[in-house]
Design a protein that fits this description.
Blueprint: H1 3-39, H2 42-51, H3 59-75, H4 80-103, H5 111-132
Length: about 140
């Protein structure tokens, strides 16, 4: 194996390792976010309902979207197309969250949604790149 091929193999391994660390951690974060919505955590209700203006009846639907995304991310470790689909769904979900904060001028509360969007985009990018390299769970 030439040094160029060895370097690419090492890079692919490092990328796959990063994917295997980030994906389950992000799935856990998204799951806890969904659980907060289901439980009606006062901090979450204040931001989503009172500040952003989302009706309370939509909190279970938002939680279900997060749960579906978390499950898809984890199962996507073994079935990459599902991981890509879940990543796209979560990126769109958090784009909507960021847009909702911007719509009402909530620049103070936009940080968590932006952070989750960045992590979702990172997890999606890693899944797509590891798929292209022929690496799966």
């Amino acid at each position: 194996m030439s040094s160029g091929q060895n370097g690419r193999a090492k890079g692919a391994f490092q990328m796959h390792t990063a994917y295997l660390v980030i994906t389950p951690l992000f799935a856990i974060m998204v799951t806890f976010s969904g659980l907060g919505k289901i439980r009606g955590d006062p901090r979450i209700v204040k931001v989503i309902h009172e500040t952003v203006g989302v009706p309370l009846r939509y909190l279970p639907l938002l939680a279900a979207c997060e749960f579906a995304g978390a499950i898809g991310l984890v199962l996507g470790i073994w079935w990459p197309p599902l991981g890509v689909a879940a990543g796209i769904g979560l990126v769109l979900y958090f784009v909507g969250a960021v847009a909702s904060h911007l719509r009402v001028g909530d620049f103070k509360g936009i940080g968590p949604a932006t952070f989750m969007l960045v992590v979702a985009a990172g997890a999606l990018a890693l899944r797509v790149l590891t798929c292209k390299q022929g690496i799966s769970g």
